[in-house]
Write a structure and sequence with these properties.
Blueprint: H1 13-29, E1 33-40, E2 43-51, E3 54-62, H2 68-88, E4 94-101, H3 106-119, E5 124-129, E6 134-137, H4 168-178, H5 197-204, H6 208-220, H7 236-245, E7 253-258, H8 267-282, E8 289-292, H9 293-299, E9 310-314, H10 319-325, E10 327-328, E11 338-341, H11 346-352, E12 354-356, E13 359-361, H12 364-371, H13 378-388, H14 391-394
Parallel strand pairs: 3-4, 4-5, 9-11
Antiparallel strand pairs: 1-2, 2-3, 5-6, 7-10, 7-11, 8-9, 12-13
């Protein structure tokens, strides 16, 4: 699970200084002027690099391991902090978020680049390790890139076709097929029978090709009734076991603190309600958001575990949105009030979400998927939901 509960990501300050020295040396070799530890508005900026008309404010985060589940949360925080520093810097400057670790594989780097391209496409980023691997994305940064010699010829294998069974839209279509077995106030989805992939595509509002590929995969793996119509899921217990396994690694999450905290469990739902109302009034593009995990279970009336952190989903990292909600990543690593998750499966989450008292809430199937691997009594919460809500799905007679 990509969690910061025990803060496993960061390294001691002296280790971070080593990476800052490495980064400064790298930029100097490419003709950049480097300034160290600039204080701006009572905030210490690690590095400022300048070459010609290009200037970057760099926020670096270092991890003890080069795993994506360690690096993605750190990169998320670095992006937000670099943007904040660039906004208050007295000279025009672009933010640059950098993550470092002893060894970072090309596949791990690809995961980071993919994450940024989906959720923060305008961000400039850097990825580096001690073995010589360098990957930077941003104007004027291309010449900094290099592959570690012993890993230069490795290639990432394509994912197996079965991975499409739990792609974002496939998970949404699974919810559509299972919706008749779940109360309407716990999962938002069309409820009817579907004769074929085209019929499912029309109701689920996905492309015919996506639905066709999804139905074909279900049939190949024995999860559809052999009859051509209507589409009916079989071996549902095994299907949900595999679906839950696809969520074991969790999602990137970022610790946050309230700018003005109040002692109330309703502070997060109230902030999401206000954001939702403002979004409806403005009717403009804005990242979708909803309660998740244990907070969602509580809101839906199936809370079972007390005293765990509150989570919410935000479609993309947006510092202004967080500020409007009253949240900040500043100094949040040690004592977070709330965690935000950037979902890898956003359509599945937000299309199926429901609204409770004006607050968008992840659907009950999503809550079951997400809490199952959480270390804070997540298995017990998932079992409670399974017993009280999802029994009709698991109690298949065939």
């Amino acid at each position: 699970m990509m969690s910061l509960l025990s803060n496993p990501n960061s390294v001691p300050p002296h280790k971070k200084r080593d990476y800052l020295d490495l980064l400064a040396s790298l930029f100097r070799k490419q003709g950049w002027r480097v300034r160290r530890k600039r204080s701006v508005a009572d905030k210490e900026v690690g590095l400022v690099v300048v070459r010609g008309n290009e200037r970057y404010i760099i926020e670096l985060k270092a991890a003890s391991e080069g795993r994506p589940d360690r690096l993605v949360p750190l990169l998320s925080q670095a992006i937000l902090q670099a943007r904040a520093y660039a906004d208050i810097f007295p000279e025009p400057a672009a933010p640059l978020a950098v993550v470092a670790a002893p060894v970072i594989s090309p596949s791990a780097a690809n995961s980071l680049v993919s994450f940024v391209s989906r959720f923060a496409p305008d961000a400039a980023i850097g990825i580096l390790d001690r073995e010589g691997f360098r990957h930077f994305v941003g104007p004027g940064l291309e010449k900094l890139n290099s592959s570690a010699p012993r890993r230069a010829h490795r290639h990432k294998l394509p994912p197996p076709e079965s991975s499409y069974l739990f792609s974002d839209l496939s998970q949404w279509m699974l919810k559509v097929l299972l919706a008749p077995l779940v109360p309407e106030d716990l999962l938002r989805a069309p409820r009817r029978e579907y004769r074929n992939a085209s019929d499912l595509a029309a109701e689920a509002k996905v492309s015919v090709m996506s639905a066709f590929r999804f139905v074909r995969q279900l049939r190949q793996e024995g999860f559809l009734d052999e009859q051509d119509e209507p589409l009916r899921l079989v071996r549902r217990k095994e299907l949900l076991r595999r679906w839950q396994a696809a969520h074991l690694r969790g999602a990137p999450e970022l610790p946050l603190r309230w700018i003005i905290p109040i002692k109330s469990e309703r502070q997060l739902p109230a902030a999401l309600h206000a954001y939702n109302v403002q979004h409806d009034v403005q009717q403009g593009p804005a990242p979708r958001a909803c309660l998740g995990l244990f907070a969602a279970a509580e809101s839906l009336g199936f809370g079972f575990v007390q005293g765990v952190p509150q989570y919410f989903y935000l479609e993309s990292l947006d510092r202004e949105v967080l500020r409007r909600m009253g949240l900040s990543p500043e100094s949040a690593e040690q004592k977070p009030n709330v965690y935000v998750r950037v979902p890898a499966f956003r359509e599945s989450i937000f299309r199926a979400s429901v609204v409770r008292d004006g607050v968008p809430v992840a659907d009950i199937l999503q809550v079951w998927l997400d809490v199952g691997s959480h270390p804070a009594r997540g298995e017990e919460q998932a079992e409670e939901i399974r017993h009280r809500v999802l029994a009709p799905i698991f109690e298949e007679k065939c």
